[in-house]
Structures are given as structure tokens and as C-alpha cells.
Specification:
The chain is α/β, with parallel strands linked by helices and 244 residues long. It is built from 9 helices and 9 strands. The strands form 2 sheets. A 7-stranded mixed sheet has the order 3-2-1-4-5-9-8, with helices on both faces. A hairpin with a 2-residue loop joins strand 6 (171-179) and strand 7 (182-190). The structure holds S-adenosylmethionine (SAM).
Length: 244
């Protein structure tokens, strides 16, 4: 850690950083769905200063940097950051920091923040969104992807767990995830769509886009059977938000 980095709690991602990264690289839901969707929402990023909040091992950071963005990133997992460092090189601006606590950047630093698949690990989005808004310049954008709340509801309903995880509630569930022989107990927070939109607007953001995209067209060649059976699916939900 450098002197301005915060000590963080041990992250479950440390226990499966390598396995998660290998699987995330080119699978359907991340490589051919979530990341292309975030890149499409970001549009032309050349010359823009962008913060990757919960950057993990840095695949989105790398793609945005290739498109000309000036990137910074942070994550709560030292293991994921080590892999990001390997991918992105020693001069990449990567910090160990906890979304939900104070972030190690001055006010009004970034044109955009991307928060890909990280907010759903937090019970309370208020402090995290306030910090992201603080580090965004006025008028800056926050691009978010999260577990789609209705997809999560369907998953629990199909598993017969609807009583424990009703749609209209903010509920926590913990499950074991395994990747290539590595595993850990992951804690995720479900919240309904209205709770997400209320959190965004309470933090002062204007919702300028909500997206349920199709997979990248290239996915049809790489995953022909999956996409023939299910050309569109609910998995993640995407928001474009604007700071005042
Ligand atoms: C599903 S991964 C996504 C990683 C990356 N955004 C991507 O799209 O590949 C979630 C990441 O969020 C990080 N994370 C979870 N809770 C966090 C928190 N409170 N603060 C910072 N990072 C967090 C994890 O360590 C992990 O790297």
C-alpha cells in the first residue's frame, strides 16, 4: 500500500482471484455481455479521466485505456489488484480502497466513474454513491452494472426460496462460489429496482439511461447453442447516471 491507501477488510475475492479472473475473461456473461455493454454505454472515452470502482483484475480498465481514456482504479481485494497490476503494468494508477469508505482522490477528479458489478456487495449504497459523486466533476457520469433484481428474484423463486428473498425487500444472501478449484463464501445484497433508483436520486444523480442489452453480436459465434436457446436473457441491469 502507498501512504494514502486505506487498510481494508480481507476480501472474499482474495480467495478466488485467479480462478474468477480466468473465468471472467471470455465467458458469456462477462466477456460477451457485461463488458461490451459497459463499453457501449461509455461511448467515445478518448481523453476522458475515468475511475474504475471495484476494478477487480482490470479487464474493463484495460479496454477503456485502449480506447484512449486516462484510467484510475481501486478495489478492496489485494489479490485482484495484484492481477490487475500484472495486466496493466507498474505505472497504472491502482489503489487498495473500500467502496463505502472515503476514497483516495480529490473532489471533482473524474469525468466518468464505472462501477461494474460492485454495488451489489454493499448493503447501504448511500455513502458509496456520495463518495463517487464527490470525486466526479459536475456533470460527470456514473455508469453502473449490477445483478438484475428481477433475475435474482426469479432465481430465488425457481429455487423455492421466495419466502426468504422476497422481491420487495433489501435482503442478503450468502453462497459459495467456486472457480477452477478456488472457492469462497460470497455475500450479496438484493434490492428491488425502486430501491436502486431511490438511492441514485437521493445521492443527487439524475438517471439518464437504464439498459437491458443484448449480448455482443460476436457471442452468437462463440456460444451458438446457449444463444440459440436463449438469444436474450436477464442477468445484469445497467444505469447511466449524471452528477449535477
Ligand atoms: C464481480 S467482480 C467485478 C470486477 C470488475 N469490475 C469487472 O467487471 O471485472 C467484483 C469486484 O468488486 C470488488 N469489491 C467488492 N466489494 C468491494 C468494496 N466494498 N470496495 C471495493 N471493491 C469491492 C471485489 O473485490 C471484486 O474485485
Amino acid at each position: 500500500m502507498t501512504s494514502d491507501e486505506q487498510p481494508t477488510r480481507v476480501s472474499v475475492y482474495d480467495s478466488f482471484a485467479e480462478g474468477y479472473t480466468a473465468e471472467n475473461e471470455a465467458n458469456l456473461v462477462n466477456g460477451y455481455y457485461q463488458r461490451p455493454a459497459m463499453l457501449a454505454l461509455a461511448g467515445d472515452v478518448s481523453g476522458r479521466r475515468i475511475l474504475d470502482a471495484g476494478c477487480g483484475s482490470g479487464p474493463l480498465f484495460a479496454s477503456l485505456r485502449e480506447r484512449g481514456a486516462l484510467m484510475s482504479g481501486f478495489d478492496a481485494s489485494a489479490g485482484m489488484l495484484e492481477l490487475a497490476r500484472r495486466r496493466l503494468g507498474d505505472d497504472a494508477d491502482l489503489r487498495l480502497a473500500d467502496l463505502g469508505g472515503p476514497l483516495p482522490y480529490p473532489d471533482d477528479t473524474f469525468d466518468d466513474v464505472v462501477a461494474a458489478l460492485v454495488l451489489h456487495y454493499l448493503e447501504d449504497w448511500g455513502p458509496a454513491l456520495a463518495e463517487l459523486r464527490r470525486v466526479l466533476r459536475p456533470g460527470g457520469r456514473l455508469l453502473v452494472s449490477v445483478d438484475h433484481p428481477f433475475a435474482m428474484h426469479l432465481m430465488h423463486r425457481q429455487a423455492g426460496r421466495e419466502a426468504d428473498y422476497p422481491y420487495f425487500g433489501t435482503t442478503n444472501w450468502v453462497e459459495e462460489w467456486s472457480f477452477g478449484g478456488q472457492s469462497g463464501m460470497v455475500s450479496i445484497w438484493h434490492r428491488p429496482l425502486h430501491a436502486m433508483s431511490e438511492a441514485f436520486t437521493a445521492a443527487g444523480f439524475r438517471i439518464t439511461g437504464i439498459s437491458e442489452p443484448e449480448p455482443d453480436p460476436a457471442a452468437r459465434e462463440v456460444f451458438p447453442e446457449e444463444l440459440a436457446a436463449k438469444p436474450r436473457f436477464l442477468c445484469f441491469l445497467f444505469f447511466v447516471l449524471q452528477a449535477p
